[in-house]
């Protein structure tokens, strides 16, 4: 099985850029950035539970990395950079720490390397569990309205929050909840030393 992706070929012989979106995003998010690298081959991936990969279930990061590897092989991508935002950045860091073959380097924006103690993991597990339940049972417009009120999104304007809420509400709440639980910071190891 492989993840849904959009491939833009570039000059042969150069490493590919493999783009991984954040939670509730899809393969289109990185395309405006990726287009600036038109000489490079680019692969924009839909992570499990998102976009064209919404129906692909995973039990944790190991499954995500296995699917990522299978997707790269299916496109004959042997040398590549992983470029990830938030969840995509965490997937990229996990792949690097697991020694995914062909990796040339990482570009990570807003990707957390992992919580450093069990209390923080327990708190995050509870928080992510509450969010997952909301994604499963409430209208996504309401959930994302509240999601974008979190302190991490404080720099967004009201107009940006409104646009993101409308965009993200097109997702499937059940598959988002499953991916949130499978790849929560609560289950991610602290990657600082390995990186």
UniProtKB/TrEMBL annotation:
<protein>
    <submittedName>
        <fullName>2-succinyl-6-hydroxy-2, 4-cyclohexadiene-1-carboxylate synthase</fullName>
        <ecNumber>4.2.99.20</ecNumber>
    </submittedName>
</protein>
<keyword id="KW-0474">Menaquinone biosynthesis</keyword>
<dbReference type="Pfam" id="PF12697">
    <property type="entry name" value="Abhydrolase_6"/>
</dbReference>
<dbReference type="InterPro" id="IPR000073">
    <property type="entry name" value="AB_hydrolase_1"/>
</dbReference>
<dbReference type="InterPro" id="IPR029058">
    <property type="entry name" value="AB_hydrolase_fold"/>
</dbReference>
<feature type="domain" description="AB hydrolase-1">
    <location>
        <begin position="17"/>
        <end position="164"/>
    </location>
</feature>
<keyword id="KW-0456">Lyase</keyword>
<dbReference type="GO" id="GO:0070205">
    <property type="term" value="F:2-succinyl-6-hydroxy-2,4-cyclohexadiene-1-carboxylate synthase activity"/>
</dbReference>
<dbReference type="GO" id="GO:0009234">
    <property type="term" value="P:menaquinone biosynthetic process"/>
</dbReference>
